[in-house]
Structure formats: structure tokens, C-alpha cells
## 1
Amino acid sequence: MSGDRGGEDALVRAIRELSARAGDAGGVRVGIGDDCAVLEPHAGATVLATTDLLLEDVHFRRRWAEPADIGWKALAVNLSDIAAMGGRPRWALVALACPEETTAEEVVAFYEGALALARPHDVAVVGGDTSASPAGWLVNVTLLGEATGAPRLRSSARPGDRLAVTGPLGRAAAGLAVLERGTAPPGVSAAHLADVTAAHLRPRPRVEEGAWLGGAAGVTAMMDVSDGIGIDLPRLAAESGVAARIDVDRLPVDEATRAVAAALGADATAWATGGGEDYELLLSCESAAFERLRRGLADRFGVRLTAIGEVTAGTGVSWRLHGREITVARGFEHFAARPTPSGARP
Amino acid sequence: MSGDRGGEDALVRAIRELSARAGDAGGVRVGIGDDCAVLEPHAGATVLATTDLLLEDVHFRRRWAEPADIGWKALAVNLSDIAAMGGRPRWALVALACPEETTAEEVVAFYEGALALARPHDVAVVGGDTSASPAGWLVNVTLLGEATGAPRLRSSARPGDRLAVTGPLGRAAAGLAVLERGTAPPGVSAAHLADVTAAHLRPRPRVEEGAWLGGAAGVTAMMDVSDGIGIDLPRLAAESGVAARIDVDRLPVDEATRAVAAALGADATAWATGGGEDYELLLSCESAAFERLRRGLADRFGVRLTAIGEVTAGTGVSWRLHGREITVARGFEHFAARPTPSGARP
């Protein structure tokens, strides 16, 4: 980073002021500035903790992700993990490393992006670390939350349960395809383009929906869809020791995603199963509870809950299209293949 | 990372088993494997949280740091932050990114290095994230701890207090100088070389000492010495709104560090003030309490507490050598100057 900014302490002071201005979200005895943050959980609550590392050219590209987008997304992926447990997010620790030529304004914009998402969910940034990076931007966010009841695990789905997912799938992948192309695909409306690129750059994790589902009767297991349902659903099934059957033609794909897929000659279903980064919630529930949960999410949050299949006894996941079993595109596994610096999949 | 290892899930399973074998440190309802860890703090305790990002060629070099050393050190720097608050470390989240060519054995060695330090302090690894890195190893550890009484802040030193530091200073810098040189300096004993290189590669944070000082009467402020006392002490003074006077000839420098400095024609005092990475504890205490604290640390832990100066009214830090005011080498500020990939200071 530029050496003329008065060093690390000045940066820490600026971030501290920014975080303090964001308002006290409660439960913070000491925030940024000491060796540790000192936090006061609610009596009787369990503490939820999750951490995610985001790297330039693996998880995002500076070509289209502004510093504020990076800050937003780094917080979003962690908020989604807390939501998936049915908990409430409370405190974030944000570590950032960026190249020497990064300006103080870019660093502040990064933190403002994170705070823009933190603030409406009453999340306080209580700690962090800043460093020079010899190789691009990299961010680690650790998010702490609380659960008052039993957290929703991914290991408690049972045969006979319904499988369901919030919102649409494949939208972030459609957005990524547009961003990688660099120019707008012909015949796609500006509103649709804005929808899909925002889904990729500034995902809106299901924070309130997750907290509500965490307290709702009949939800048996829950996780977020971060790597694509083609990877995440087999994880839920394996952790629960059950099998699952998915009707691929019931996977929710919205109009914007279909329009982009049509314009680019891409497969919207493959985006829905293997695109990843949608940060929707995947849940299993008692069959009899589905309709109540669906209506609850629609009425309270205007969010659609779609039944996509069933939990069965056994192991493995079978995917059916028009009644025939098919193989689906899996999501993105960070270790399965190396992302190429100029490649198709960040 | 090598693509033939069965992907990210297999790695997560291996790390989960490794962490589980490390024993249940308590308070973990759900560890690695779900969207979040689910933790149960003690009733009435505050939760301490700290995070640190360590990057190859900024904070360590693969030329001499083995994967197990990196894991150890990433945990050590965070343990030191919890110790500096007078708290007890409990739960760690460890995120790792490493290059494609990294083997599964190296990743496991990294986690074993972290666990080798976690285990004796009853710290459980409860979460993490793994990713491919396009540019070297990078590690983020977030450590959560607990404090039952009031945590020791860096902002509560008062004029008239004594300033003191645990253990010796400058040893990690001496170790780094030896490692950078590549060959043993002439005339330095093997034991001294082992002392200083271990101080750099495998620092032993003052975990038990910090917890004891956290409960001892008369300690007014505390922080750890991570960037060098030349940077860290001015931080403590500024946060407390006080000035400080340090007698440089009283700074504790051990025989091994002096021997290496003599052999290399280096300045041991500059290492002690500006070398950083010693992870000793710097504290202010009531004058009358010093002797009791000194004896307590010596008797319980065999650790020396050295009085190095006084807190005074005003602002700023003055450094005196043989009664004359001098300017001291400052520690390493990550943003003050860019580390050069082949440079003198990682």
C-alpha cells in the first residue's frame, strides 16, 4: 500500500472510526483497537462462529469487483452461514491484505462496502487485521452470531422429509457470465442484467429468513447453497446419513437468468445446479410443515420457498428430469481444479 | 493444490478427524463440518475475539518455515493476543489457502503444527476454510477466548505506574537474521542458535502467564509485543493518554541474542526495540505491585519480569541510554514500507 499514509496505526484509526460511526450493535465492551475484541453474548445463547477466506482471481476479480463489492461479498458469505444455522449474526472480524499501490480511499471503500451490509443486520465490526499483500487482494471475515434455540444442522434430515430452497438458483452464475463477457448480451433487458450482476457482486444472504426458519417448527435440517446445489445437497445427505431425490425441472430459475442463458446459448439448469454463490437456504422439513413454511416466508419476506424433492432412506442423490434420472453439473470445488488466472470460473 | 485428492470435502474430513483426535476441549456443541461452529461459553464470561492474517513473503518464508511451523505460528500470534487481555483461549477457526502443487501431507502437517500448540492450552480447532491460492501460502486464524474478570486493556496505564516486560526481547529478530543468512554465524553455540531460530519459527506465547496476570491485583494495562516495543509501547501510551520513559539499558536481552549479534556485527538493542515478533507481554502496574508480580511469574512459570521504565503524565515515549535521550529503531509496520520478496525483513 502507499507508504505515505502514516502507517498502519492511522489506517486502524480510520477503520475504527468508520466502525464506531456504524452505530453500536450492542454486546461490544471493547471493539477495534485493543489486542482482542471483548464481547458479551446473551445469557444462555450459544455462540455461532464461521470464517471465510476470499482471494482475488479465485473468488473475485478486480476487473469488475470494486473494493466496496469485495467488502460486501466477504461479509455476505459469512452472514449466509449464520443464517443457515437459524441464528442471528452479531460481530465481525475483518482481515484485509492488499497490494502496495492500493490507496487509503480504496481501503475505506472496502470497509464501507462491508458496513453497508453489516448495518441493516445490526452486525458490528469489532476487529481486524491489515497487511500488505505481495499478490492481490485477499480478505478473511470471521463472523460470530448467536442462537437461542437449537441451531439448525445439516445432519438432521430424515427420510420422508420434503427438500426445499429459498429464492431462485443460478442467478449469480448468470451474473458472472455477463461480467466475464464484458459486454451486455443482445436482447436482455437492463433490469435483468442488473438483477443477475447484482446477484454475483452483492449477494443478499437470507439473514432474516434464516433467523425465522431457525425458530419455525418442522424444519429438520438447513444449510446455505454456496457451492451449488449439485455439491451442497450431497453434503447435506451425507451428513444426515440419508439419500435424496431431486426433480430438476422444479428447481427455481427466474426470468432474468433464463433470459441471459437464452441470449448466451447457455444452460440455465446447469447454472442452477452447478453455478454456486447463490447464498440461498436449502432445507429439509416435515412434509406437513412445508405449506406453512412456504406461506410464512412469502407473507413475511416476500420470498418464495420451492419444494424441489424428497429425502429417502439410503445414500446418494438422484436427479430426475421429466421422470428420467440424469447427471447434473456439480458446483465449484476450490480444490477439484485450479482456477486459471484468465479462466472461465473465478 | 493437487487435484487428485478427491476434492475439498475429503480434505475437510481429514482436518475434522485430526481436530477431533486432538480431544474435546469443552464447550463445543458442533465443530468442523457444518455451516458454523456452535460454541457454549461459560455463563457470565465475556468472549474475547482476535484475528490475524499471515502471508508468505510478508510474515514468513517457505525457504525456512515448514508447513508445521506456519500452522504453529499462525496460532501462536493469536494466543498471544488472548494472553495480553488476561484471558483464556478456547476455540480457533483456521483458514488456509495454498498453491496447487501443495500436497495433502503438507496441509495435514500445517494443521498438526497448529494442533501441537493448541492441545496443551486446551484450544479446539472448530472451523476453517480451505482454498487454492494463486500466490503462495496464506493463513488466517481467528481465536476466541474467555475472560471471567475485567479484561486487561492497553488503555488503562496511569502516571506513576511501573512498565515491565516478560521474558527477553530481540530473540526472534536474532533468529530471523540467522535464518536469512542461511549458514550458522561463526562462534555461536548450537544451543544459542536453536534458541533464537525457535523463537522466530515457533514462538511460545505467554498463555498461562497472561491468564495469571489477568487475575493478579495491581496490573493496570497489558498488551503483547508483536511489532516491537518501539512501536507497541507508543501504542499503549497513546491509548492510555499518558507518556512513558524507558531505560534502554534495562531492556532484557538474553545471552543467545547477544552472541548472535556479536557474531553478525548487529545491534542487539535495535533487535530488542525494533525486531518484533517476540510475543512477550508488556504491562504497566502499580509501583508497589511490581515485586509481587515479578516473584509470582518467577515462582509459578520460571519467567522473568523486567522493569523497563515508568508511566508519566503527558504524551509520547522517551528512550534513555546511560541517562541520555536517544531515538530507537521502531518495529515493523506492515504498511510503512513494502516488504521486498527477497528483502531483509519478511
## 2
Amino acid sequence: MSLLEILDHTGVFVFAITGALVAVRKEMDIFGFVVLALMPAVGGGTLRDIMLDVPVFWIVDNTYLFVTLAAAIVTFFAHRLIQRLSELLTWLDALGLSVFCAIGCAKALELGYGPVVAVVMGVITAVAGGIVRDVIANESPLVLHKEVYATAAFAGSVVFVVSPMPDQVSLLAAIITAFVVRGLGITFGLSLPTVKHS
Amino acid sequence: MSLLEILDHTGVFVFAITGALVAVRKEMDIFGFVVLALMPAVGGGTLRDIMLDVPVFWIVDNTYLFVTLAAAIVTFFAHRLIQRLSELLTWLDALGLSVFCAIGCAKALELGYGPVVAVVMGVITAVAGGIVRDVIANESPLVLHKEVYATAAFAGSVVFVVSPMPDQVSLLAAIITAFVVRGLGITFGLSLPTVKHS
Amino acid sequence: MSLLEILDHTGVFVFAITGALVAVRKEMDIFGFVVLALMPAVGGGTLRDIMLDVPVFWIVDNTYLFVTLAAAIVTFFAHRLIQRLSELLTWLDALGLSVFCAIGCAKALELGYGPVVAVVMGVITAVAGGIVRDVIANESPLVLHKEVYATAAFAGSVVFVVSPMPDQVSLLAAIITAFVVRGLGITFGLSLPTVKHS
């Protein structure tokens, strides 16, 4: 297993926990936990693969499903403990975000798509599943309101696309960029300006 | 028309009515009825076919659309009558659920996918459309809260996958299993445990 | 650039503005504007292309993304001005609706699908994205309640499908039909009957 694969599965695990934590708040049963865990964990990549018309990644490699299932079950039984780790989770989530955008971007480029589509796919891989999670939970998606979150995925994706370095180095550069941007957002509580509706 | 096809179309008709009944509650117009009827009736199977990258079933066979349309129109004009049949509907819905999970599972296996993907597709075929119905109607999906519903689809799908019997027999065994599990849930008001958020 | 392409891009721009205006009401950040603008602008066509299993139109031609992005940015900075143009927007939206249903319908027929699928795709192209926009914004989709909106897309699609005239003429007839139906709805405040839930 390469470092990238380890990071990828860690990202899936942490994203799945963010979904399961919403299920805690909504007082769902174990099936609700699994569904809400699946959305952020594999939802964005699923949408990406369907749009790029390639086999859906978790259908090819079922490990992603088992990782998600594990996260849902762990959260179901240990949600009080997990909620106390919220700061750690925020940073692991930032890591997942960074890895996901780089992977989505790389996949699109490898398939021969142009830089614009690659950046869009990077952002979709990283944030679309979280939006679906919030929509299913009947909440207005947080990422659309005010946080440096999608911006981080966008920055990472752009770095990957414009990077003239070999793929492995570009991937690392993209992950670090996204992580730093997101990390600055977390540390300083930065947020994008919103409109005031009057 | 085989028995399976009759059960399949009955399932589509009943699932469509469950969608249209949400449209009654939301005081929608006839178009709203059709859209909300389509979600549970063909939504899960559509998602399954898109993920498995095969032609969408109702594009191949338009009958499913007409059955759904009929259910929407009948419910629009006779919703008071239909609402009085709620117990019958619950049991027909259980039948639809059972048939859908078996069909979804069988389709995935026939296409050469493994048992894990087949079970996932069985559950998606049976419950995904109902989730989308509730999300569009701006309600938190009932199936994620507490009911032995997805569990029944899961049980039926597992039985189909592990069954060593010929396909027709496995299909029947899966349908009966799902129906019995769901039926026990209905009869005894069983529900999965949920977390208590504190 | 043909007249149809100009109308198509105008439709995308106006539909994107309707999405961005929901983002104004929800006090979202610029990313929220872009996401909500994308839904009505390219969402319906994306769903259509995925269901018909052809390359997604905006992946083939990125112009649609830039038009949407422009609409989102313009609305972010000039939403007060745009909101004062609401009547103009309503009519441009009617034009977009008319063009989208004709294009969706034409695409399905060209690919060899039958009239029923073509009409469904015409309606999906025109209205599905708007439904997703409302769902993401956590609102019950307006189009499902009471307005002559989907009906206009339906009427335009049916005219296209039954028209015995050459494609260009049929396209024009479909656009005009949808626009007139929608226009009558706007002018006279027509709406489809809804059920009364009691």
C-alpha cells in the first residue's frame, strides 16, 4: 500500500465519521449512520466517476465500503468519545479534503481531460459528498456559507494542474497547498465574505 | 408477462403512490405528483443502472413511466380514498421493497459484479428512491430514523447472494425473506435502536 | 455561433442567475453562489447526459462553466441591481426554459431514443436543475407547487416530438410553444390546480 493509498483511506474514514456525526445529531439508526457516512466518504468520487464515465471507484475496490462501514459503526457506539476529539477530527478532515482534491484532479488529467475539468473534478471529489450529506440531513450545507473549505480544494487542484513537476511531486504539492489553505482557515477562523441580504 | 414482471410493476405502482401521497401532504400540483411519484418508483433503479453503467431500465422499457404516471394521476384524484387504504398500502409497499431488492441484486450479479456490490445495489434499488423523495419534499428521510425497512432489503439481498439455489428459487427466497423481515417490523412495530444525542 | 447557441448560452446565464439569487437570500459566500448557479444552469443537462450515457455537455465544452461562473460573480457583486430587474429575468428565464426543453428533446431524438424518452429528457433538461437548486438551498421546490412551468417544458417537448417539419423548424416551433405557454402563465398568473390536504 502506497502512502497515497493510506492517506486516501484515512480520508475516507474521517469523512465517513463526519457523516456519522450528523447522524448522531439527527438521532438516526445504524442504517442512517451508514448512509450519511457514505455520502462524504464516497459521494464526491462517485459523482466524479459517473461524470467522467469511468467505473465507480468503490465498485472496483470494495475496501472503501468496508472502511466507511467501520467508521459508521465506531461512531454509532463511541460517538461521545469521538465528539471529544473534535479538534483532531477537524485536522484529519482537512487532510482528507487535501488528498481527495489531489486524487480527483489527477484522475481527470490521467483520463485525458483538460485542466478546467480536472480542477472541477478535484473540487467535486472533495466537497460534493459533504453537500449531499447535509442535504439528506435536511440542513443547509455549511460549505456554501462561510468557510475556507472549497477554496482549499480549489487551490490544491489549481496547483496540481499548473505544476510542471512529475506527477508524484505535483500530487504532494497539491495536498500540501490545500492543507495549508484549509489550515490557515481553521487557525485564524477565516471565512469568505458573504452577501448581506436586505 | 412473468410473475416477477407483474410483481415488479406492482412494486413500481405502489412505490409511486407513496411518492404521490407525500405530494398530497405538500399540496403540490400534478407535476409535483409525477416527480415525487417517480422518485421512489424509478429513482433507486436509475441510480443503480447509472452506477453499474448499463442502460437505465425505464429508458429501455417505458412501461415503468406509464405505470408511475397512472399512480400519480390516480392519487391526485382519489387521494382521500387511497389514504383510507393505508394498511393495505403498507403491505404492498413491503412487497415492492422485497421485489426491488431481489431484482437489484440479481441484476448486479448477472452483470458479473461481486456479492458486496450486489448487496449494495439491492439495497439502493429498494430504498434510495424513497430517500430522494423525502429530500425533495424537504423532509428528513424516515428510513434513516427508525424502522426495519432498509434492514429488510439488506436481509433479502444477502439471502440472494449466498443462496446456492437456481436463480428463480433464490429470487423467491430473497423476496420472501425481505417480506418477512419487513412484515415482522410492521406487525410488532420493531425499529432499529437509535442513538440519543445529548 | 448559431442563433441556437446564443439562445442556449443566454439560457445558461439566466438560469445561473436564478441560482445565484437563491444564494443571495441564503447569505452564502462566493462558492455557494457558484454551486447554486451551476445547478439550474447545467444540472438538468448533466442528468440528461448521464442518463443517456453520452459525454456530459459542459465537460466537452467548458464555455458553459465560464458563463455560469460569470453569472455567479455578477450576481454576487450586483445582486441589488439584478433584483430590480426581476421582471426582465422572469421573461429571460422563460426563454431559457423554452430553449433547454427543445435542446434536450432534440439531443435524445438525435441519439435514436423514442418520443417518450425525448419528452422526458426535454422536461428534465429544463426543470431538474432548478429542483436540485431548491433542494440544496433547503427549500421546497417551487416548480412542484403551482406554476405553469414544467407544463411549458412539456408542451414544447411534445410539439418537437410530433412535429413533421425539418429539425430547425421543429426546434423553433418547440421553443415558441414553450415560451407562449410559460408567457401565458406569467401574464395571467395561471397555475396548475393543487390538492387540498385535509
## 3
Amino acid sequence: MLDCIIIGSGAAGVSAALTLRANGKSFMLFGSAALSEKISKAERIRNYMGLPNISGEDFCKAVQAQLVEAEITITQEKVSGVYALGDKFGVATQEGGYYESASVILGCGVESVKQIEGETEFVGRGVSYCATCDGFLYKGKTIAVLCTSKRLEHEIGHLCSFADKVYLIAMYKDVEMGDEKVEIIRKMPLKLEGEKRVDKVVFADKTLPVDGVFVLRESVAPTVLVGGLRVENGHIVTTRNMQTNIEGCFAAGDCTGRPYQYAKAAGEGNIAAHAVCAYLSEQKKKA
Amino acid sequence: MLDCIIIGSGAAGVSAALTLRANGKSFMLFGSAALSEKISKAERIRNYMGLPNISGEDFCKAVQAQLVEAEITITQEKVSGVYALGDKFGVATQEGGYYESASVILGCGVESVKQIEGETEFVGRGVSYCATCDGFLYKGKTIAVLCTSKRLEHEIGHLCSFADKVYLIAMYKDVEMGDEKVEIIRKMPLKLEGEKRVDKVVFADKTLPVDGVFVLRESVAPTVLVGGLRVENGHIVTTRNMQTNIEGCFAAGDCTGRPYQYAKAAGEGNIAAHAVCAYLSEQKKKA
């Protein structure tokens, strides 16, 4: 069994991985080979100690090279659920993968695009976060897809292979969806409506009837990811040691609160990794 | 009045300074042009995100260049006391300087050399931390000097200009004190003894009679620096926001606890700087 699974390849996850590696721990790092869209798109980072006035792109390149040097690979699967199973954790991915570890570090970021009114209410009743898992349910149907990142476009492509009509509510630039089925909408909806299931997306100026709504964000809300996780005002609550309310489950970076800064996230990732090492040796003593 | 005074030029202090600068705040950064002995002497730093496998020396050079670029200068005075004066702080230095600021960030590190038994007991009664302040009191006398860093040797030189006999208990390599008055000792004393004032330094194999003891460390204990500061197990207690128990006084880096890591210190410096910004705007609203 792995010592740890790190979820998220932003500054927190990468820093945690480097520190676990330096401490000889076994782990998997889930995320994107591109690391973090927030980092790579940053124009200039002016206050990260050691890398003066660097562009987000160059920052990413430096970190990617460092990961290669440290022989850390990123598992590019989207984590769909984290399950606390007594003295271990199970981590499932949208791609159908399942992994186990003694501890977990959540570095899943925060979503800059707010939840839509009705979104949480209709989860599992027409609202889905996983094109791969639920796309086939909408064969011949009309769906709306709220997508926050160009990197998730391939999932829309997957949905197009089932649905007849796709309203793409695109929260990113340079949309490249040539499919005839796709109608691009550039406004945020006000809310989702329906009786038992969602059946309407309501905008300020119109209402679209739909059979389902897919919400594709870079990060999944931590409470959706980990059942029972304590969250306040959208941020995971941790101790100074980065421990969450769930034993063996730590969190670091933007998901734990402001400031949303690389240095802060990297620092917390470092602390979380050290806390994992301490946790593992305690568990060993108990066994 | 300055927005902030940062005490300590290690990773925490530097990171805080870069962030305050990026936020347009006025501040002074107290420390050493060489930044931090702990950093510069590190052989390899393997887990600092963005700077793979870098030597402590190169790390220091990178940070020094960054400070120059950001037009941040380090005030090379040793802070001897921080005083909470209602809605502002007064900061005094051993060199006789006095400065005021609306807030303070303590990035003063932790002392790796432990306190000697009796040290705290005899502070002000023969034990001094300041050669410049108290050296003249020992004209023609015999003193012991516990010194933890080569960088503080010039202070021993100052003491030699007064004292007749100096026992130098050197906790560092490459001692270069040619003065005839100086007798170098390579062992840690067990304790300090005396009646009203300290008058003996006790070693395992001998006892030296002295008129005074100077303890020259890179960092001053935070409780000596700031009266009333809440400290537990040698570490300053802070919230997740790096706020100490004293309003307007924040802390970051090794002085707040383990892990003693650059990433952690830089991250906390960043958080503390943001907390200072929030604190300043709250104070403005109140005024």
C-alpha cells in the first residue's frame, strides 16, 4: 500500500510530493502534466522567493523539470472520490482507477467559478461532474455543459458523441468546438430549475429546456470529493499542521483558504508532507 | 509611520518583504545582508519548488539578487526589543536605533543552541545578549562569551577592548580571535551559577570564575524580544493566519514551529504579509 496519495498538481501538491520524495515515502500524485492552469496563466509572479519576476509559464517549466529530476510522475486521472476506510484511504478516478494509501493530501485548489443556484440540489438528479461516467445516459438528449477550462474540452467532445444538442456555457477563451450539435453561450446562468430532476437552465434573458447539466471544472469541490470533510466558507478547515477533521487526511494550498499564493501553497504542501511522515510513523508504532 | 517592521532576514522575513513590496506597503527588514546562516550553509536543498537541488549558497545569491531587483534593503541592526504601544509598535536596536510601525512580523528563527541552565535566571544580573550595550561594564574584568556564529566575532572583538580576560566558548568552526586575552573553550558549559549575580561558569571538568557572561546568538529568544508574547515549547503560538496573541504582531518561519523548512517559512511569510495588509486596512476603517 502507498504511504500517501496527493490530489492536485498545483503548488501545494508538487511541494508535498517533493518533500515526500526527499523523505523516501511512496506516493502517487494526481493531476495534470500541465500542473495548474492558475500557475501557467499567471503573467508575472513577483513575490515567490528565489524566482524573481518570473512568468507563470517559466515557473511551470522550472517545476516540471524539477519533477523529472526527482523522478516524480503525475497520474493524469481525475479523482472522483476519496473514501476513508478505517486505517487507509481508497481513491477512485473517473477513468475507473482505484488506489489505496495510508494517508491523503488534498491540494485540489478552489474553484474561481461559483456554484450555480440549484447545482448542489440536483447533483445525481440531472447534474453531473463526470462526462466519462454519465455521458452515455444522455444518448439523443439535450444537455447543457458548463465548462471552466479549455483543457476540459475533450470531455465535451465525449458528451457530443451521445447527446443530440449541447449548450456549451463556456467560461474560457478560444473555444474550439466545431461540432454542429454545440451551441456556444457566453453568459452564466442564473439558476437551475426542475421538479424531481433538473429540466431548465435559467438565464437573465431566456430559459433553456434540458435533460441534464454537466459541470466541468478543473477542481471538484472538496466536500463532493471527500464525504464528511469539514469545510467553512468554501475552504477546508485544517490545524496549523494541515490536518483536516478526518484522521490521516491533510489539505494544503488554495483549498484551505486565502491568500491564494504559490508561496503559501508550497509552504503548506511542505508542512502537510511532514505531517504525513509523522502520521505514518505513529501508525507504525500502533501496529 | 511605517506599515510594518519585519524582524529576521531568513526565508520567512524575505518572503514577507517581497509580498509587502508587491502590495505597496512601507516597511523595514531587519537582519543580515548574508540573509540567514542556516540557508547559506545548507549543502543541498532538494524540495524547494522551482529551484531543484540547489546549494544553500546559490539559493542565497538568487534571493539576494531578487531583493536588489525589488529594491528591498536589509537594515543590519540587531533588534533588542519590540514594544507594543497601543496602536503601534516601537522597535529598538542594539545599535541605538528606534523605529515605529503599525505592525510587526517576527521571522526571528529558532536557536539551535539550547539555553544554558541559569541563563534566563541571570539575565540583567551578569548575563547579557548585547556586547555593544553592556561591554563597557566589564572594563578590566573577566568574562565568558558563548558565541554561536562566526558572524558575531566582531562583537567579541568589542568585548576584548574592555575586558582583561575573555573565555570564548565557541560553538562554531574557524575561530579567528588572535587576541591574547582570549582563551578558546570547545565545550558547552553545564550551567551558570552565582548568588545575586552570575559568578561561575560550570563545566563537567572545571569551574571558571567570571564577572559576567555574554551570550551571542544569531537570534534572540522571541520572549526576550517581545514582552507578553505567547510561546509554547519554544515556539511562538499563532493562528492559521500567523497572528500571535498580540494584536498587530505576526510571526512566520522556524520561530512558529516545525518543520524547519524554507518552503514552510516562505509560505508563512507570505501569509503573514497578507494578514498585515488586512490588519492595516481594518485599522484604517477604525480610524
